[in-house]
Amino acid sequence: MRVLRSIGRRLAAKFRAPGALVLMYHRVASPRRDPQLLCVSAAHFAEHLEVLRRYWRPVSLAQLVGELKAGEIRPRTVCVTFDDGYADNAEAAAPLLRGHEIQWTVFVVTAPIASSRRYLWYDELEELVLGQSSLPVEINIRIQDSESAVVPLGGAAGDDKWNVLCESATRRQTAYKQLHRMLREMPAREQRAILDALGEQLGRVQPQPRLMTESQLAELAGDGFAEVGSHTVNHPVLSKLSIEERRHELKESKRRLEEIVGKAVESFAFPYGQPADYDRETIDLLGESGYQRACSTSARLARPGADPLNLPRFCVRDWDGDEFARQLREWATA
């Protein structure tokens, strides 16, 4: 019994130890549509940073990992990260973060930056299905050698304020969700083929370039506050790829970013980032590829002893400052 009590005390002490919040953003913008809830307005983001600077202890991702390893996490420690590499990270977020002297990390998908498109597959899908005034009643989708699937589209796109968490949806919004789920699981080559087929049936679209340029990335990396990390080459579900394909996604994105920013790239974020989207083999490949830190999207506190190559994060929505502060308190005490 004495041994069991001792183990119990140690476990209780571990879970009483302060945990850090790693925050995940994507965009600082107010677009016409935001079906995946990726955007925080500039006004709300400024309020978030005021809350962090006044009541919390913002640190860089590298400092956080060092403190986790040493078991020296102080209360109210928080870390700011962004996924994908949208241009508004440099244009809207970076000046605000710099003004509050807050270190942050941006995880970048490299393939679109090197192309003329500079947008991600889900940006294109949004424009194809939700952004056009009129569409056919239905479309036919064929995936490799499988039979064609008929996807009904119906009439109008519906309210631009609609998002994937809404309980109701028009037929077109339902089709968007169905196509998003399907494309998410595909490697980049198959995604491209499906999007091209959709363009043939629905009409070609040209989304505004949304991701950073190479020069914006290089400028960010040199400003003293932003760390540039990798988010793979093509933003795939890594667990769906072969080992060699995963190794390419990790190593090539790292190599390309280091070429652009002129310094070592040591941080990584798993695309989509849920447990089913990567595995232990993928985590081991990160170490093999030279990464020191990696983030998932599992919503938990980062506590001493956490695996630095599998850090949890909380997704931030477009809340005002008061709601953001309430969410932080709730997460910190969960």
How would you describe this protein?
With 334 residues, the chain is α/β, with parallel strands linked by helices. It has helices at residues 2-16, 42-55, 61-70, 87-99, 110-114, 121-130, 171-184, 188-202, 214-221, 243-261, 280-289, 321-332; strands spanning 21-25, 27-28, 39-40, 57-58, 77-84, 104-108, 138-141, 149-152, 226-230, 267-269, 293-295, 314-315. The protein has 2 domains: 18-117 and 209-332, Glycoside hydrolase/deacetylase (TIM Barrel), CATH 3.20.20.370; 121-202, no CATH class. The strands form 4 sheets. Strands 1, 4, 5, 6, 9 and 12 form a 6-stranded parallel β-sheet that branches. A two-stranded parallel ribbon has the order 2-3. Strands 7-8 form a two-stranded antiparallel sheet. It is globular, with a radius of gyration of 21 Å. The two termini are 29 Å apart.
Offer a quick outline of the entry.
The chain is α/β, with parallel strands linked by helices. The chain is 43% helix and 13% strand. Residues 6-15 have low confidence and may be disordered.
